[in-house]
Design a protein that fits this description.
The protein contains nine helices and nine strands. With about 230 residues, it is α/β, with parallel strands linked by helices. The model has no long low-confidence stretch (mean pLDDT about 90). It comes from Staphylococcus schleiferi.
């Protein structure tokens, strides 16, 4: 096992050089290089040896390896084919990780959960979400009503504030309505640009969404509700 965490500037640079990897701006790739932030994310998620974790956009595995040390199984979806051999290398010490080279917006998440996470007592999504598709990812997972207990996810600060916005505030809108219908939302921490490589153009926030036992309000037709709400997202 490598003696240095992936989430350090030196190890991340070494991996970039080793694999000749260039960031794709179109995929919104910003890798975490601060293990303390990662530990705070994991602590907020409350995962343990009974938990199955879904990660979206593992990158080089900086968050994934720390999740693997605590969770029963980690199921990671990575769209970038170039990162698959990197992840195979960095995550080789962890047999409880499955990486699927697929777009989360097209993947059959329910089937993958059944295959890899069926023995887990609870399921959490813990991820540094690709900022350019944060909203579509969350809406898709919520709309499918999967057996997911909660989410602890990093995203663009502006989007996170919309998720957590109160009725009547300037940030409150369609995204707030949909997420708060299904989940109780709370802010975990604000994350500076400096803990990423390369640094993003925006500040980030980690938000926790925990599934409600029953929706916030009764809706007779959820499909119509989602269609109406998504029209304004």
């Amino acid at each position: 096992m490598h003696d240095k965490d992936i989430a350090t500037p030196s190890r991340t640079r070494a991996l970039l050089n080793q694999y000749g990897f260039n960031f794709k701006k179109s995929l919104g790739q910003n890798f975490l290089i601060d293990v303390n932030i990662i530990h705070r994310i994991i602590d907020a998620s409350g995962i343990d040896v009974t938990t199955g974790v879904i990660e979206i956009g593992p990158g080089m595995g900086s968050l994934t390896e720390q999740l693997a040390k605590k969770a029963k199984h980690v199921l990671a979806f990575e769209i970038d084919q170039r990162l698959i051999p990197v992840l195979k290398d960095t995550l080789s010490p962890y047999p409880n990780v499955t990486v699927i080279n697929e777009d989360i917006l097209k993947a059959n998440v329910s089937e993958a959960m059944q295959t890899h996470l069926s023995e887990c007592e609870k399921i959490m999504v813990v991820a540094n979400l690709p900022y350019y598709i944060t909203t579509p990812i969350l809406l898709r997972l919520l709309e499918q009503d999967l057996n997911i207990d909660g989410y602890v996810v990093m995203m663009q600060k502006e989007v996170g504030e919309r998720l957590n916005a109160q009725v009547g505030s300037k940030a409150y809108g369609s995204l707030s309505i949909v997420t708060q219908y299904y989940t109780k939302t709370s802010k975990v921490l604000t994350v500076p640009k400096t803990v990423f490589m390369p640094p993003p153009n925006v500040d980030s926030i980690v938000v926790k969404l925990m599934k409600r036992q029953s929706p916030l309000v009764e809706v007779k037709n959820e499909q119509a509700f989602f269609k109406m709400a998504k029209g304004g997202v």
